[in-house]
Amino acid sequence: xxxxxxxxxxxxxxxxxxxxxxxxxxxxxxxxxxxxxxxxxxxxxxxxxxxxxxxxxxxxxxxxxxxxxxxxxxxxxxxxxxxxxxxxxxxxxxxxxxxxxxxxxxxxxxxxxxxxxxxxxxxxxxxxxxxxxxxxxxxxxxxxxxxxxxxxxxxxxxxxxxxxxxxxxxxxxxxx
Length: 176
Prior knowledge:
This protein is 28% helix and 28% strand. The chain is an alpha+beta fold. The strands form two sheets. A five-stranded antiparallel sheet has the order 1-2-3-4-5, sandwiched between helices. Strands 6, 7, 8 and 9 form a four-stranded antiparallel sheet that branches.
């Protein structure tokens, strides 16, 4: 299955995406709010977890590329892990190469993923989380008309570092 927007293609991952994914995950600015850059082994492990999620659930974060086949990053929905502070549920997320920033791609890709999540997958609610200083993601959430839910904000420890998550909510009635 492939999701297509006017400028983008959201598609399943391929083995030949590993180098581009590693470049994305190695960029300190791209990874600033996720604990910093990953080396190739860390990047491969993260992509392996994404592929395993697809095998288990039938959905995951999609590879995002331009219609000219240029890898731009990823966007899509993942199940929250069993130990996540928010409990069970699903979360939308995105991460783009710096060359793709400021062009509306994150909003376009996330909107397509939300439509798929509410349509084909039938979810009644999709969460989005970001760090307080990640103003770019907060702007995407606002453009998508997600609703802030401060009662669900949380602090969690990832690899020994505390991370404070701000939570937004999308529901089918919001018109995706």
